[in-house]
Structure formats: C-alpha cells, structure tokens
Amino acid sequence: MILVTGATGFLGAELAKELVLRGNTIRCSKRITSTIPPLLLPYAAQIEWVIADLMDAFALEQALDGVTQVYNCAAFVSLKQADKEPMIRTNVMGTANFVDLCVNRKIRMVHTSSVAAVGEAKPGELISEKHHLDPTNEHDGYAISKLESEMEVWRGIAEGLDAVIVNPTIIIGVSAGTAGSGQIFETVRKGLKFYTPGSIGFVDVQDVAKCMIGLMESSITAKRYIINAENRSYQQIFGEIARCLGVKEPATLAKPWMMELAWRGAAVMAALTGKDPALDKTSARAASVTRNFDNSEIKKDIGFEFRPLSETIQEICAAIKD
Q: Locate the NAD-dependent epimerase/dehydratase domain: which residues (predicted)?
C-alpha cells in the first residue's frame, strides 16, 4: 500500500492523481478540517481517505498499517509572523513522528522539502544539492521549518530509514487556482505594473509528481534532489504571463527600497484586516535576489526531462481565460 500525506494540497493532490492513473490503489491522509480536492473526486474508488494529523502519532500509526511506501507532502505553511513558531514546531515534530514510524516499520519514504531549505551559491554559480542553508543567518520561519524537517529525515536515514528528499523550486500548474503560486498569474492578470531584479526557478507540478514517483521506484536512497525545470528572471516570467493573458507587461523596475516600503505597507494592512499579508519581508527581499538552480542531478540519476515552462504557462493562461 502507498500512503500520500498532504493529499488535499496542490502537490499532494497531483501526486495522488498520477499514482492512481498508473494503476495504483492508494491511501491518502487528511486533517479532519480539510476537504477532498475536486481534482481527486473522480478517483474515489481508487483512494482510501484516512484522518491523520502529523502531530497525532497514534493516528499516523494507524494510517501506516500495511503501507510500504510513503510520499510525505504534508506541511504547515503561513506567512503570518504569529505562526512562525507553531509552523516550525508542527513541521519538525510532525516529520520526526513520521520518520520514527517509518524507521520502525521499514517503510520507504520520499520527503517533500523546498529550495527554501537549500543554501546560496557564489555569484554566477548555479545552486545545487551540495549547498546548505545556514540556519544562523536565516529568519524565514518556513525555510527554517523545512531545513529542520530535512534534518529529521537525515537523522532517520542514519538510523536505517530508506528515504529520498526532493527540493522543488516554485511549483506551478492549473490546479493551483488563485492560491499559492497561482497568485502570480492572478496578480499579472489584474494589471501588475512592477517587476523586480531577481530570478528564481519554476517547475510544473506534474513534473514534480513524476520525479517523486521515479525516485520512489528507483533504488536511490539517502540523497536530496533539486526539482527545477527552468530559471527565469521575474521580468521574464511576468512578461511571458502578461503576453499569454493579453494584458500589459509590467514595465517599471521595483528597486529594493521600494520593496521595503511595500512589505511594510502589506504588514500594516494585514494587521488591520487579520488576513495574511499580500507581501512579507522575506518574500520582498528574496524578489531582488538572483537564485538560479542546477537540475542536472535529477536528470542524470533517473533520466528525467522536464516539460518546457512555456507550455505550462500557456496551459494555465488558457484555463484562466476559460
């Protein structure tokens, strides 16, 4: 039996769908307050849903009955400063619970981390799996939670866990809707006027799912992989999305000092409304940083070829227009 945690989320749902389309009957875990995503409703006969929070070791133990493979996609994600410590605690302790159970039951795991947990390269170099985040210089709660969760997986590997870690860049796809990375397309659609000088990697959600399955079905263990299709500057990605949607491209460079003002303004609005900030300090500063990623390791080890990013962008834009 295969278990997918976090299957109500963007990546977890796409992964579950891909597994079912390959002929598997799977088990998916969800929190009691989560709803099954529309993407998975047509596959009810192939998916067994169980209620299991990562912080509930007893529920996890029951969810793992008869399981031989686990795809761990569950995570607490928030931009609110008030959620920083709870997010770190939940992600790290939840991963630790899961790792302990998988070690004891000899269950193979593919753990989903993020490039937020990968360090920086020297100027002009690509960021690769050899780079590691320095926690003493990091203040982003999400990045810290992902890094420390990875450390729990590595601790499990030292204790005999058969596991692989994936570090995706920004994941995009139609099923994101207007949440998460979907906000990029929605913001451009509404008329984005500014672009920032930085760059980042992007990857199709289906490619991430396929890479994870390819790694699970391989004999590879005790390795981490950056999952990235292409690196794009923010000016390039915003411009391509705008052209695809038939709206005006952002034409004004948002300099770092402007981004500093923007996140402070967003913080004030969030405090007044009680909603997540439209832009947080970490994201604002990251938007001016060039971070380009090396995807050669995953391509070499499982022979994977990524879908061209422009195809994914066109697919998402077509869905938005419809």
A: 2-218
How far is the C-alpha of 99 from the C-alpha of 154, rounded, in Å? 9
What is the rounded distance in angstroms from the CA atom of residue 23 to the CA atom of residue 107?
Answer: 21
The pLDDT tens digits for 164-201 are 999 999 999 999 888 888 888 998 998 888 878 888 99
pLDDT tens digit string along 226-236?
999 999 999 99
Total number of residues shown for the chain: 322
- Is residue 11 within 8 Å of 73, Cβ to Cβ? yes
Using a pLDDT cut of 70, give the percent of the chain over it: 85
Amino acid identity, position 4: V
Angle at which helices 309-321 and 234-245 cross, to 10°? 40
Q: What is the DSSP string of 48-86?
A: EEEE--TT-HHHHHHHTTT--EEEE--------GGGHHH
Helix (H, G, I), strand (E, B) or coil at 1: coil
47: part of which helix (H) or strand (E)?
Answer: strand 47-51
Q: Which of 120, 168, 124 is nearest to 286 (CA)?
A: 120
Q: What is the pLDDT of residues 244-282, one digit of tens each?
A: 999 999 888 776 645 554 545 555 455 556 666 655 555
Cβ contact 73:5 at 8 Å: yes
What are the chain's domains?
A: 2-171+202-229+292-308 (3.40.50.720)
C-alpha 99/C-alpha 157 separation (Å) is 9
Q: How confident is the model at residue 12 (pLDDT cuts 50, 70, 90)?
A: very high
